[in-house]
Design brief:
Chain lengths: 390, 304
């Protein structure tokens, strides 16, 4: 059997049976499921219970009902109370979220959410305007007629408004997941390299397999574990979001987005794994690892942080440029293409550049690894492994 | 047959190897002896391709040694290396697979070796739960799993208890008997003397003596007489013809025979018969004979 396959299988078998991996996968799956259901758990407040007391309660109730009737996703339940004291008690007991007293004040436990606040204010304005106009001598019926305003229809250029929010959530989730996963698996690669170098087992291994085969097997094996994690996360996340009804229907092209994420994950992983492995081969002890890895980790973290920015303003020049430049593109392009429609040439250019960068890093990283991995003891200097004749 | 010719290696200004050559024939057990830092490990690492030489060459059956040839060698490096979190049998088997064995063969061979090296009860345990001596047995099993065409073992006996030493010596002798050249380094000279067909002594990167133990003894030009006499008068030995290399008047049985004088002399004689006559005249001769220098004696003399 091909040595690369043997090495990869060992990585999968040994790493896959550690408690860290199994529990990690379980915890991640649960976390993703909860995150996916979160909007539903907190966002259930589109059904409002409202209390009314004192003057103008009838007119307010009519105004509120009229508003609720215009919005299919919103329903209200109105309860009438005899006086302010009763309304206060109801709010305090949680029977209603808010109560309007005498059409002059709103009582609530804490500051009201924007949605409900707008609803109540609008009702108040309607009733008060109506009253003011009536007292100015206008016919209440005509006033009521004049107030019948049809809500503006929403036209968005990039899908429906609801889609945009969902896309944003998906994009930000992608950034977080890609970052966590890349960092975790690349750290495994680095630790594996140091384990073999530090224990000198690499001396025996290299009499049996070639350095690049050993490195490739390790990267591929751990990559398979990472990819399976990504697939679990994606499947659990999408399923949970749909089951819970948090996302009634996924935006068009979600599956395409997921496929894109997988491709970008693989490219990003190849890039960072080669980089982490090369750096790790310079040291002989795990304790030295985090120190030498920090520039690479910082590069990854920078991509991550920029990812949030790109998710929010995907059409800014910075987002457009960075989503094409490797290695940032591996994290930013999937985010950007989730939120907006990215021109094909930009995606193609980004992918072409990234593939080239991956090839370069694999080549350079492989050479560094080959030269440094047998040199145990003090840290190997970059100048020693990058020189042409050594 | 392994042929090493004129290996040179330097680290900066330090010369690690300065023209090391040696030959190990099929079925020969070659003991590699030298002080710490003399170049044993460097030589073995170059033979195994783990280290590159500045000059010189390594040939196996007349051809330069490449990666595919080395896969058929068994190697035990100076610094032991195993995956700590991998089970014993699984790990030994893994090395077998890496050397190109099919899965069932690797499993069978691993089981047999584990049994042979007395680890049968530990085959499912993680390596890091084993004692150092047992880890070393696993290391050895990893070097032997693929029935190698040649064995290169760096300090295989260090840290083993006498029973493990015998087990290992048995395994190595068996391989040598099957026609496999075995090269190992050791500081336990009595062991090397007992096991090896030939010995190489290295000093500061140069081979200072190579040959069978008998050949090395023959090189030892000055023959030594060991004479033990009791009941002689003090000073009798001063008249012996030749150079006295060592002497003692303390009997190994001092307590029991305190009333009688004891003399033991190591002599490089100019006239052995005259020495015998003097000894019989001086007292009761307990021992009179040529002394065979041990490997330790040869080593000290050659390296000094």
């Amino acid at each position: 059997m091909n040595p690369i396959v043997l090495v990869a299988r060992r990585e999968i078998a040994v790493r896959g049976r550690t408690k860290g991996y199994r529990y990690g996968l379980l915890v991640t799956a649960v976390l993703v499921a909860v995150l996916a259901m979160l909007p539903k758990l907190f966002g259930g407040a589109d059904d409002h219970a409202i209390g009314l007391a004192g003057a103008r309660a009838d007119r307010l109730q009519a105004a509120l009902s009229a508003q609720a009737a215009q919005d299919a996703d919103r329903s209200i339940k109105v309860t009438r109370y005899a006086d302010e004291a009763a309304a206060r008690a109801a709010v305090a007991a949680g029977d209603v979220e808010a109560a309007i007293v005498d059409n002059t004040s709103v009582i609530s436990k804490t500051v009201l959410g924007t949605g409900l606040s707008v609803l109540l204010d609008t009702a108040h304005r309607m009733v008060t305007t109506e009253q003011n106009l009536a007292s100015a001598g206008l016919d209440p019926a005509k006033v009521a007629q004049a107030q019948q305003v049809t809500v503006m229809s929403r036209v968005t250029l990039n899908g429906s408004g609801e889609d945009a929010t969902v896309r944003m959530v998906i994009a930000l989730t992608i950034v977080v997941v890609l970052f966590m996963l890349l960092l975790q698996i690349c750290t495994w690669v680095a630790m594996g390299v140091v384990e073999e170098k530090g224990s000198r087992i690499v001396e025996i291994l290299l009499t049996l397999v070639r350095p690049w085969q050993l490195l490739a097997g390790k990267v591929i094996g751990l990559g398979v574990l990472g990819l399976s994690q990504l697939v679990v996360i994606a499947a659990v996340g999408l399923a949970a979001a749909q089951i819970s009804g948090a996302v009634p229907h996924l935006p068009d092209g979600t599956y395409g987005v997921v496929a894109g994420v997988v491709v970008w994950f693989l490219l990003g992983y190849a890039f960072y794994a080669a980089m982490f492995a090369a750096i790790a081969s310079l040291v002989s002890r795990q304790e030295e690892l985090s120190g030498v890895l920090s520039p690479a980790t910082m590069l990854m973290t920078a991509s991550y942080l920029v990812g949030f920015f790109v998710g929010q303003s995907p059409d800014s020049t910075l987002a457009r440029v960075l989503s094409i430049v490797p290695p940032f593109s591996s994290m930013l392009m999937p985010v950007r293409s989730t939120v907006v429609r990215v021109p094909v040439w930009e995606t193609a250019l980004a992918m072409g550049l990234m593939v080239a960068a991956v090839a370069a890093v694999l080549y350079a990283g492989g050479r560094v690894y080959q030269r440094a991995v047998l040199r145990t003891g003090t840290r190997v200097r970059w100048s020693e492994v990058l020189r042409r004749h050594s | 047959m392994l042929e090493v010719e004129g290996l040179e290696k330097r680290y900066g200004d330090t010369v690690a190897l300065d023209g090391v050559s040696l030959t190990v024939r099929p079925g020969e057990m070659f003991g590699f002896v030298g002080a710490n830092g003399a170049g044993k490990t460097t030589t073995m690492r170059i033979v195994m391709g783990v280290l590159g030489a500045d000059a010189g060459r390594v040939r196996w059956n007349g051809a330069p040694v490449g990666h595919d040839t080395r896969r058929r060698f068994g190697y035990m490096p100076e610094e032991r290396g195993l995956y700590a979190k991998m089970r014993v049998a699984e790990q030994v088997e893994y090395f077998g697979r890496l050397s190109g064995m099919a899965a069932p063969d690797a499993r069978r061979s691993a089981d047999a070796l584990i049994e042979r090296l007395g680890l049968a009860g530990r085959r499912g345990d993680d390596v890091d739960s084993l004692s150092l001596g047992n880890q070393q047995r696993v290391q050895l099993a990893a070097a032997l799993i693929h029935d190698p065409e040649m064995l290169v073992l760096d300090e295989p006996f260090s840290g083993l208890d006498p029973i493990a030493v015998d087990a290992l010596a048995g395994v190595l002798a068996e391989r040598a008997a099957a026609g496999v050249p075995v090269v190992f380094s050791s500081h336990q000279l009595d062991l090397v003397e007992r096991l090896c067909d030939s010995v190489g002594i290295i000093k500061a990167g140069r081979m200072v003596a190579v040959g069978t133990v008998a050949e090395l003894r023959a090189r030892e030009s000055r023959k030594r007489l060991r004479i033990v006499v009791t009941g002689a008068e003090a000073g009798w030995a001063d008249r012996l013809p030749g150079e006295i290399v060592a002497r003692t008047d303390r009997s190994p049985l001092a307590a029991a025979e305190e009333h009688e004088r004891y003399d033991e002399v190591i002599l490089v004689p100019t006239d052995d018969q005259e020495a015998l006559r003097l000894a019989t005249r001086a007292g009761r001769v307990q021992h009179f004979g040529w002394q065979e220098p041990g490997l330790a004696d040869i080593f000290r003399e050659v390296v000094a």
